[in-house]
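so i finally got all the pieces together for this one. its three components total, 809 residues if u count the protein bits. some of the lines might not be protein, just check the labels. i wanna see the whole assembly predicted at once instead of chain by chain like last time, that was a mess tbh
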Amino acid sequence: MKIIEVKDLGFKYAGTDFYAIKEVNFEIDEGEFVILAGKSGCGKTTLLRCLNGLIPHFYEGEFDGKVLIDGVDTRDCPPYILSQKAGMVFQNPDNQLFALSVEADIAFPLENLGLPREEIRDRVEWALRLLRIEELRNRSPFELSAGQKQKVAIASVLAMKPKILLLDEPTSSLDPVSAKNLIDVIIELNRRHGLTILISEHRLTHLIPHANKLAIMDKGKIIYFGEPRKILREDVLMYGVSIPRVVEVAREMEKINGCLPFKEIPLSVDEFLNNLRGALR
Amino acid sequence: MIRFESVEYIYPNGIKALDKIDLEINDGEIVAIMGENGAGKTTLIKHLNGLLKPTKGKVLIDGIDTRKVTVASLSKKVGIVFQNPDDMFFSENVWEEVAFALRNFGYDEATVKRRVENAVNFMDLVNYINKSPFTLSGGEKKRLALAIVLAWSPDIIALDEPTIGQDLLQKEKLLQVIKLLNSQGKTIIVSSHDVEFIADLKPRIILMKRGRIIADGDAEEIFLNEELLRSCNLLPPQLITLSKELKFIGVKPKLYSPRELATEIMAKLQR
Amino acid sequence: MAAILQGLQFYPGDSFIHKLDPRAKLLISTTFLLITLIYVEVTVTTMIIIAEALLAAISGTMRRWVKTVYGSIPFIVAVFLMNYLVRMLIPGQPPTHIILYESFAAAYRLIALLASFSIFFLTTTPEEIGMTLTKLRIPYMYVFAFISAIRFTPILAEELQTIMDSQRSRGLELDKGNPLTRLRRYIPILVPLIVNVLRRSYELAEAMEVKCFGASKKRTYLKELKLRLKDLVVIILMLASISISLYFKFINPIKIP
């Protein structure tokens, strides 16, 4: 069974006269790492909202099609159950931290669910260790950097033990090293702990080498959905997707050479070098 | 000409945000101020129009000491486009929003009308002139924020983290606008940690760390120094990293564009 | 004004006072309050103030506590003047020197009152205050609102500053003009502020939904306040003080200079 199944999904927000997303169809296996890309306004955020139940439970509008998360139809399932299947991390670090200490913030959703105290304590410890933020336990949100806040946000959501983690442009406000740091954490969550990841981002350079699938959206529809290497052979710049520069170099070399000088498109500096060395032999 | 002379700035809560800053920016330059969050970039920018006045030292804009004049009068010369457009919109429609600053600066209505139309045209917002600024999309809001400043045509334009949350096409457009404004003689200052964007712009770079300027040079020189960048929580542009690794086929490490590097590699491979 | 606020903000520390259960501390402040209200005599008030100063010293918050006292002087003076003037004008009042003494005593008591709660706020974290409210059976909705206020006020304050910076950079001059025009000039400040507050509320509501806010009728809590021996000792002491004060005032009045 696929962990996420989306069939003919469409959504029009109440009070608007156009579909934010339309005819969306795809499936995701458990443990996959999927990138959602596309220019601002293409429907990425709307799609993510459909995957954790915010649509249709929090946002009103016309909902077409079906979304199955871990076999459950989102329309029939209350949001607090869906949050335990698919956790969501938002773009603004401050607007998802509610408590006055990191520990209290991670405990917040568990307290809301009415879990017994011992269970809450265990899960808080687990989440702190998972994100490697044990030393931040007693800090208040005002003392944290943006990168640290996002890690706390992830920990807070993972404390509910979802199998899926949805992230909506989580590195937006972070500087390059903090952004890479956060992405490394997310990659580890996927590699080591088998978490299914669906992340929407503009800055793809560090993400693409680790992704199983790349989805490119435009005007509410999915234009491409598949392996990054195949998709990056196409002209995706027109969809506002920043592809890694090394990919651009490879494609320019393809134009000069007539064909790609390597076996396949390199997604990172290391892959480029390996491919080059391979081609030279 | 912008001059910082031994500028120090300590916030009321005691944090020293700027520590002995000496800086000179000539008319018509494009300068990028880079560094991690908290290095002092925004504090520096706020000194340009007097929003913040140095606790020690002085800032001179075209010879005028910023401590001696009002923010409003300095703003006529130095336009700052802040990071979050949502912190400035309050009018009924885009037209009024752009006109606001012009009226504050005392232009007569005929001039206001002309300048609003020019700015709106320049930033491709003609179709939105009667729309409420609150109904605009994120990218449109950023364009409006820039249009607002361009309307009064300051000689110096400072942009604080203009690329956050922007997609590729929006960034390309911004790059073009900056280059165009510079060709018209404007001094442009961009504070950013978007390394790839600055790499495309190829400006003079001022690197800040903990309130100090630790490097001041041309883009290529600074981007080639990986250790320096990492000490500021920055990473070098991907193609610099790649070109360094390609020394073994004779490629010289430089700030290449993808096409330039591709051409160079193919050339070296032919041999 | 700012000085008073400083005395009402949590000041970190490791003192005996800090470690007391917030309910015990609340009782200490309430005890001071009651005694000050019961007794008008200046000597009693002075004793209370000395006691408060002692607590401030023990908890290492002396500086801040003094600031509250200092900052409330304008109010004190105002109360004193009002009291004095009103009583001078009403017929059938005792001679002037008694009015002066009583007005002074009234104002003086105000210091003790304000300062009594300062100790509580200085040594109790907002989180602990939240826990106290929960223990007092206040519905979670209100406790959450309180904590959110503490959580987001600094952010709002920062936003206000950013908005003012943006608008001043567009030539808006907030310090010029008569009171009426000045008020209009605040529109470009208030509108973005309110819009941002609304937008933030929406984003917060979304995040709350994702974090299952309201999912369970029986909400549990990771941390809970527990009274320990030292808390009980303090509580007994305070209750005893109140009883003694009441006794000597109403049941067996004694003369106090």
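Chain A has three domains: 1-85+164-178+190-236, 93-161, 244-281.
Residues 1-85+164-178+190-236 of chain A form a domain with the Rossmann fold fold (CATH 3.40.50.300).
anyway lmk what u think
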